[in-house]
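User: I've been trying to design a sequence by hand for this structure and keep getting stuck. Would you show me what you'd pick, starting by listing the structure so we're on the same page?

Assistant: Good idea, let's start from the same input. This is the structure you sent:
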């Protein structure tokens, strides 16, 4: 567990965004893994996910205050958390400014349709190469289409660990592009689900807001965050 924490990006969010801007400008490849307690806990019993976390070529960001605090407890200094939604919002902004191409894969059909309409209106310079909901029968077909179309940015919203696994399966075939699993970010970006109020974000309490608004998450929170912190303390 400590070895995974050592791999996390440890500088400021804005510095990381500059790296992404450079990658996009120079047509580099990057597979971003947003690491939170659930990612780390699942990897203990999932060899495929474990291999993804051990791949030194991937870029690991601390998605969640629990990961940041855990790293600090074991002597690893991390400046701040960098969430999947923060990265997704930045990628849309820079894609619009530079007329980059994107492909979106994941979420429910009504969610991604609303998001695509929003992008067309608010980020009109983005070249949308394709999109698909995450409930298709053959996800491999979608990934093969993504590889063929060679987008500058590919966001996959299938949830942990499915999004990481399918990106890893096809990433080696990509010629360029930022590939990232963004979890439930499409719901927030589309406006179908609200992000936590700014005060919750500022105080690093987004996890609490999610539990308050979605009590069904409590069991998942216990199995990931709570057990994770017990493990770090041990």
């Amino acid at each position: 567990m400590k070895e995974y924490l050592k791999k996390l990006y440890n500088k400021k969010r804005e510095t990381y965004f500059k790296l992404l801007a450079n990658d996009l400008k120079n047509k580099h490849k990057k597979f971003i893994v947003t690491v939170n307690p659930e990612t780390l806990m699942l990897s203990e019993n999932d060899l495929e996910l474990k291999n993804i976390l051990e791949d030194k070529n991937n870029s690991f960001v601390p998605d969640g205050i629990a990961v940041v605090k855990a790293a600090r407890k074991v002597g690893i200094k991390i400046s701040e958390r960098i969430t999947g939604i923060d990265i997704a919002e930045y990628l849309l902004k820079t894609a619009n400014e530079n007329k980059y191409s994107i492909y979106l894969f994941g979420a429910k059909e009504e969610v991604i349709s609303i998001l695509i309409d929003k992008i067309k209106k608010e980020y009109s310079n983005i070249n949308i190469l394709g999109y698909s909901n995450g409930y298709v029968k053959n996800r491999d077909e979608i990934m093969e289409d993504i590889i063929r179309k060679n987008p500058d940015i590919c966001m996959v919203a299938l949830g942990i660990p499915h999004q990481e696994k399918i990106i890893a399966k096809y990433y080696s075939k990509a010629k360029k592009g930022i590939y990232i699993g963004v979890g439930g970010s499409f719901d927030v970006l589309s406006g179908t689900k609200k992000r936590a109020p700014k005060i919750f974000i500022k105080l690093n309490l987004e996890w609490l807001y999610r539990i308050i608004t979605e009590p069904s998450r409590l069991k998942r929170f216990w199995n990931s965050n709570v057990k994770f912190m017990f493990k770090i303390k041990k």
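That's my pick for every position. To get oriented when you compare it with your attempt: The chain has 13 helices and six strands. The longest strand covers residues 29-35.
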